[in-house]
């Protein structure tokens, strides 16, 4: 009998699935292209008059007792990432710019870095949006085509446009891939591409598909993380 599918996942497990460092998951969350949550149980909360989804039960007194994954706001995430944990008193809802608040007088929810989770729906949405290859039958580096200038790259029949500095980094990596030393330091790539950012993740933060084109060696040499292109064919 197959096991039931999980409704949420620890971000460390998701990072492993996507072959990303945890810092990338955190950066995507702070940039609000990925929504992280925390699991709560019977949390007393108020909604200031708007209705929530069917998963939240309303008491006769009009107070919600919330159970399940609750989406975190960017300010809360920033505190958690900086200090290792944070006190959370409000959460996002499905409606834009509206929130659910802890009931007045209730203690804050203490959220630790290791408590952060990703719902299955959010994980799947992110993978669809950025064509992440995570399972057999999904796109792989062999499904990638590109022109010489790397301004446009096709992954699994979907075209992705890259800006001049992003494309310059990809061209530098392509040139290195044809040598005996295909690994280049991120700092060197940014300098030669005349990019103003300090890390490649910042340069490509709105182009998560780059992780299907470039891999990191997973170590840092003399303070420099190195990268290699993993596709070679032209369009």
Task: Write a short abstract of this structure.
The chain has 235 residues and is an alpha+beta fold.
What features would you describe in this structure?
The longest helix is centred in the C-terminal third of the chain and has 14 residues, at 164-177. Helix content is 27%, strand content 29%. The chain folds into 2 domains: 8-125, no CATH class; 132-229, Arc Repressor Mutant, subunit A (Orthogonal Bundle), CATH 1.10.10. The protein contains 7 helices and 15 strands. The strands form 5 sheets. The chain has a 5-stranded antiparallel β-sheet, with no helix packed on it. A 3-stranded antiparallel β-sheet has the order 10-11-12, with no helix packed on it. The chain has a 3-stranded antiparallel β-sheet with strand order 13-15-14. The chain is elongated. The protein starts with 7 loop residues before the first strand and ends in a 6-residue tail after the last strand. With 235 residues, it is of the alpha+beta class. It has helices at 11-18, 22-30, 74-83, 120-130, 164-177, 186-192, 200-203, and strands at residues 8-10, 37-46, 57-58, 64-71, 85-88, 90-92, 99-102, 109-112, 117-119, 144-146, 152-155, 158-161, 184-185, 214-221, 224-229.
